[in-house]
Amino acid sequence: MVSAGVQYQEAFIVNDRGVQQFVCSWLPADQEPRALVFMCHGYGMECSVFMKDNGERLARAGYAVYGIDYEGHGKSSGKKCYIRSFATLVSDCTTYFLGIQDREEYKGKASFLYGESMGGAVALLVSRKEPTRWNGMVLVAPMCKIAPKMRPPPVVIATLTKLASVIPTWKIVPGGDVYDLAFKLKDKREKIRANKLLYHGRPRVRTALEMYRASCDLESRLDEVTLPFLVLHGAADMVTEPEVSEALYIQALSQDKQFKKYEGLWHGLTAAESDEDVDMVFTDIINWLNERSSPTSSAGASGSSSPICHSDLSALETDTKQPKDGSWSLSESGFRDHQDESQ
Fold first, then answer.
1. Helices 275-293 & 52-60, crossing angle to 10 degrees?
2. What is the pTM of this model?
3. Which ranges constitute the DSSP H helices of 46-164?
4. Domains present along the chain, CATH in parentheses
5. Which of 8, 43, 298, 319 ranks highest by number of CB atoms within 10 Å?
6. Contact between 71 and 77 (Cβ < 8 Å)
7. How far, in Å, CA of 320 to CA of 32, rounded?
């Protein structure tokens, strides 16, 4: 299907476990793609509707964009929003992405990973799994560290670990619908909430534990990140704290890295801010990609010798809204301390 200069395609593939997964793509209709972008969506999200605008914007900018719904997410089969193994989820994405990369028509094309929220963790882990296959990453409010004030007590993790071995699929972890925290503008938030492909229930026990473990693993190895990257974060994000992206920017050994922090913006940078702010964010993303996908770009698939691109760190002291009591629930950066929503 071709619309407004973008060719959209979708299909189903079957992974090595026999699970049917939904995949889709947005391609420039009137030009050869300048590079490939592989999208990793967030927890409970999906590609075809929620990330449609992302795909179309990038395709109109000349990029071939590919996305996959994780097992149990969106149109893919599996128990809704159940992550039995984060490593398996990452392997599914890696296998699909590399298969696209290896197509004859894409030989020699630069390839970039794009991840939002939990998808940022997926992108980082895919890049770790196959470090020589990527020219860079765009990470939007990524889940890659647990902020100290969000870190759950050891007794919580011990309890969760025991429950995961007995009742892994039960939806008993406090939290659930985080749309009011993630998406700022009400009209856009309600449109997102109405998407029947998204997950609106409480996190499952195993899912919560796998996300926590993935966050801890990434946090302990941020200094192993060497791929060029752009990380973007809203200063008023209440789902993944801006200090998470700051830690990645500071600790990563990448020689080409950039951190952009947007005052007043929330978690859903590309979905539920004003049209002007969304345009600003995508302009930053596309400019960054353009600079690293041009024929004269020095970025290589295993890293870059380009000088470090420093962001403006003067705004890193911005405070975000603090929780009011001691209850714990799951967010995409682990467990979040917040006011009891049942009151």
1. 50
2. 0.86
3. 52-60, 86-101, 118-129, 154-164
4. 2-338 (3.40.50.1820)
5. 43
6. yes
7. 43
